[in-house]
Amino acid sequence: MKESFEEIWVYRSIWKTTLTILGAVVFTFGGIIMLIKGKSIVLAWLTILFFGGSALVTLYLLLKQLITRRPYLIIGDQSVRVLDGKGYEVQFADVEDFFTDNDSNIGIRYKPHVEDSKMEEASTIGRILRKLNKKASGSQESLAASGLTIKPKVLCAILNERLPLQ
User: Fold this and answer.
1) CA torsion sign, 38 to 43 to 47 to 48?
2) What pLDDT is recorded for position 166?
3) How far apart are CA 14 and CA 74, in angstroms?
4) How many secondary structure helices (H) and strands (E) does the chain include?
5) Strands (E), 3-154
6) What is the pLDDT of residue 65?
7) Which of 19, 48, 54, 123 would be 31's cystine partner, CB 3.0–4.6 Å?
8) By the 8 A CB rule, do 160 and 98 touch?
9) Rounded-to-integer distance, Cα 9 and Cα 11, Å
10) Cα 17-22-28 angle, rounded to 5 deg
11) What is the pLDDT of residue 1?
12) What is the dihedral angle through the alpha carbons of 125, 129, 132, 137, rounded to the nearest 10 degrees?
């Protein structure tokens, strides 16, 4: 009989998210100063729009998390659910292994038949993106792992621990 694991909820780190917002605000003020001084007006507006918009979106996501207490990931016995945007679920039975080569993403190496079916089901643009991801990182899909309440390498180890024995 397979061992039963406790469900793990993983949230975005409030402190890391707050630092990201503060960094974006600093760059936004830099753009405002550039605009006031009349230097590189196009670059100033691009800076204000990009970093100001990023700060607002990140602030929205932070407030949404604080109000709803909705986690980013729920790791169960059979799958990991990603509750970001539309959300999706990765069944552990479909995965060969999880890996990380940097501290921002966890790659998902699917079993060959699953990988083939995901490629077939994808749209034309989806296929192109999957092929580019495969060449760049070694996997068609990955989980964003930076800015969470758990370190990416620890999260990767937990996910691999839950994979069924081959």
Assistant:
1) positive
2) 61
3) 17
4) 5, 7
5) 8-10, 73-75, 79-82, 88-91, 95-99, 105-110, 141-144
6) 86
7) 48
8) yes
9) 7
10) 125
11) 39
12) -170
C-alpha to C-alpha distance for 142 and 144, rounded to whole angstroms: 7
Residue tagged 């932070």 (tokens): 62
Yes or no: say if 153 and 112 are a contact pair by the CB < 8 Å rule: no
Contacts of 124 (CB under 8 A, 6+ apart): none
The residue whose two tokens read 């190496």 is 109
Give 83's DSSP letter. Answer: -
d(CA 133, CA 103): 17
Rounded to whole angstroms, the Cα distance separating 10 from 70 reads: 9
| pLDDT score at 5 | 78
Paired tokens of 14 = 């409030």
Compute the distance between CA of residue 8 and CA of residue 96 in angstroms, rounded to an integer: 21
Tokens of 157: 């180890």
Task: Give the tokens for residue 46.
Answer: 């691009």
pLDDT for the residue 139? 86
Amino acid occupying residue 9: W
Q: What is the mean pLDDT of each run of 10 residues along the chain (166 residues)?
A: 76 92 96 91 94 95 89 91 86 91 84 87 89 86 87 91 82
Closest CA to 59 of 18, 30, 27: 18
